[in-house]
C-alpha cells in the first residue's frame, strides 16, 4: 500500500479517507502518514547498513513532537539549529548524544544548554563561534566536541540549486581558512576536534554537487591528517531533493552509494542531515474550497488554507501539486488556488485544472517538509491542526490553535 492512495475514488492516507479527516477535524489540517515516514527512513538507511553512520533528521523541516519521537524510535539522531529545537528533541524522547548543532548564531545560552545535554557535536560556523564555545565549555569545566562546517564553494553555475555552499553566503567557514582554524581548535583546552561538516543547500536534484563537495572535504581531511589532526566523522549535510512536480532527484540508494564509495577504506563515521527527503512527501495539507470566484481573466478558488499555513508558494514560488480528494461531477476549470490572506502573493497554486464546487476539499501535496514548520499567525489566523495516520487510525498530534491562544501573551496599556 502506498501512503497516499485511492480507494473507491477517495484519496486516503493509508486506510483513512482524507474526507473523513477533514469532516472530523475540519480544515486546514496537515495529514502525515506513519508508514510513509517509516518506509522513507528505512529506504534512506538501507544503503548504510554495515557502515558506521548516523542519520540526523533536520528538525527544522518538521519539528512535530510525534514525528521526532517516531524518528527517535527508528534510531535517528537530529540536526538542530536552536535551543528550541534541542528542547523539542529532548521532549520527544530523542537522544541528545545523537544531536548535531548547526547554525551561524548560537547564543551563549544555547551553547550552554547543548553542553549540559551532552550533544554529539557542534557544527561550528565561524572563528568567533569557536572562541565562544571554548569560553562556555571552560566556564562549565567541560570539553566541547566540534566539527567545522566548511564551505566548499561548489560552482553554482553548473549547479544552480546550491545556495548555501557558496563563498558569498553566511554559512560555514571559508574553505581556505579551515585548516588554520582547525589548528587553532586543536590547541584549545576545552575543544575536542571530532569531525568535519558541510551542507551545500537544499532541494538538490543532481548527484554531482554532493560529490564535488565531498571531494573537497576529503582533501581537507587529508591535509588535517598531515597536521596530526584526525577526523573521526564526516557530516555530509542534507539537501537531497524530492519530487514536487517532475523533478528527478537521485534515489537514496544512488545517493548513499556515491557517498560511501568516496569514504570507502577511510574508517570514519558518516553523518547525514536529511530534512525534506525524509518528510516532504509524507504529508499533505487538507483545505476546503470556501468560494469559487470567476474573474475576467482568471477564475479563483478561494480555499481556507493560506500563505500563513504553507508559505513555500508565496516565498519561493514553489510548486505543490493540488488535487481533489473525492470524485466530483463539477466541470473542470482552470483556477488560481488562493487563500484568504490579504496579500496578492497569497497563492497556493497557479493555473490548476480542477473539478470543484464550493465546500469540496483539496489536498496540497508534498507538504510534509517546511510546511507547518514555517507556518505563522499572519492575519490572526490560528495555525492548522496536524494528524498522523497509522493504518486505520488518525491521531491528532497537534490541536488546531484557538484564536484566544494567539493573543494570550499580550497586554493592553493600564
Ligand atoms: N542541515 C543544515 C545545516 C541545513 O541548513 C538544512 C536546511 C538541512 C540540513 C536540511 O536540508 P534538507 O535536507 O531539508 O534540504 N525552507 C526551505 C528550505 C530551507 C532549508 C534550510 N536548511 C524550503 O521550504 O524549501
Automatic annotation (TrEMBL):
Organism (species): Methylophilus rhizosphaerae
One Pfam family it belongs to: Orn_Arg_deC_N
Cofactor(s) essential for the protein: pyridoxal 5'-phosphate
InterPro entries: Ala_racemase/Decarboxylase_C, DAP_deCOOHase_LysA, De-COase2_C, De-COase2_CS, De-COase2_N, Orn/DAP/Arg_de-COase, PLP-binding_barrel
The protein's name: Diaminopimelate decarboxylase
NCBIfam families recorded: lysA
Function: Specifically catalyzes the decarboxylation of meso-diaminopimelate (meso-DAP) to L-lysine.
Entry's family note: Belongs to the Orn/Lys/Arg decarboxylase class-II family. LysA subfamily.
Keywords, alphabetical: Amino-acid biosynthesis, Decarboxylase, Lyase, Lysine biosynthesis, Pyridoxal phosphate
Residues annotated to bind substrate: 276, 312, 316, 343, 370
Amino acid at each position: 500500500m502506498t501512503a497516499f492512495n485511492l480507494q473507491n475514488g477517495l484519496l486516503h492516507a493509508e486506510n483513512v479517507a482524507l474526507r473523513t479527516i477533514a469532516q472530523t477535524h475540519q480544515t486546514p489540517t496537515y495529514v502525515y502518514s506513519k508508514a510513509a515516514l517509516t518506509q522513507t527512513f528505512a529506504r534512506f538507511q538501507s544503503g548504510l547498513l554495515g557502515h558506521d553512520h548516523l542519520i540526523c533528521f533536520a528538525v527544522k523541516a518538521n519539528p512535530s513532537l510525534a514525528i521526532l519521537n517516531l524518528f527517535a524510535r527508528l534510531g535517528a539522531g537530529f540536526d538542530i539549529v536552536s535551543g528550541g529545537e534541542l528542547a523539542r528533541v529532548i521532549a520527544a524522547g530523542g537522544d541528545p548524544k545523537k544531536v548535531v548543532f548547526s547554525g551561524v548564531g548560537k547564543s551563549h545560552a544555547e551553547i550552554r544548554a547543548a553542553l549540559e545535554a551532552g550533544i554529539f557535536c557542534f557544527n561550528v560556523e565561524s572563528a568567533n563561534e569557536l572562541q565562544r564555545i571554548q569560553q562556555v565549555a571552560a566556564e562549565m569545566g567541560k570539553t566541547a566536541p566540534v566539527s567545522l562546517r566548511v564551505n566548499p564553494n561548489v560552482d553554482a553555475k553548473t549547479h544552480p540549486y546550491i545556495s548555501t555552499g557558496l563563498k558569498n553566503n553566511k554559512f560555514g567557514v571559508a574553505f581556505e581558512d579551515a585548516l588554520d582554524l582547525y589548528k587553532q581548535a586543536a590547541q584549545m583546552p576545552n575543544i575536542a576536534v571530532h569531525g568535519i561538516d558541510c551542507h551545500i543547500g537544499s532541494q538538490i536534484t543532481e548527484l554531482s554537487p554532493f560529490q564535488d563537495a565531498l571531494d573537497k572535504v576529503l582533501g581537507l581531511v587529508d591535509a588535517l591528517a598531515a597536521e596530526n589532526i584526525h577526523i573521526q566523522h564526516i557530516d555530509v549535510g542534507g539537501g537531497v531533493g524530492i519530487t514536487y512536480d517532475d523533478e528527478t532527484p537521485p534515489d537514496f540508494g544512488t545517493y548513499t552509494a556515491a557517498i560511501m564509495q568516496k569514504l570507502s577504506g577511510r574508517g570514519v563515521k558518516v553523518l547525514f542531515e536529511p530534512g525534506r527527503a525524509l518528510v516532504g512527501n509524507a504529508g499533505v495539507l487538507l483545505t476546503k474550497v470556501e468560494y469559487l470566484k470567476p474573474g475576467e481573466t482568471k477564475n479563483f478558488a478561494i480555499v481556507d488554507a493560506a500563505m500563513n499555513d504553507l508559505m513555500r508558494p508565496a516565498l519561493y514560488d514553489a510548486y505543490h501539486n493540488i488535487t481533489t480528494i473525492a470524485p466530483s461531477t463539477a466541470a473542470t476549470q482552470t483556477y488560481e488556488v488562493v487563500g484568504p490572506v490579504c496579500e496578492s502573493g497569497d497563492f497556493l497554486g497557479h493555473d490548476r485544472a480542477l473539478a470543484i464546487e464550493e465546500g469540496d476539499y483539496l489536498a496540497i501535496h508534498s507538504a510534509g517538509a517546511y510546511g507547518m514548520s514555517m507556518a505563522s499567525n499572519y492575519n490572526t489566523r490560528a495555525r492548522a491542526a496536524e494528524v498522523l495516520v497509522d493504518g486505520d487510525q488518525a491521531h491528532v498530534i497537534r490541536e488546531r490553535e484557538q484564536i484566544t491562544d494567539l493573543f494570550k501573551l499580550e497586554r493592553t496599556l493600564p
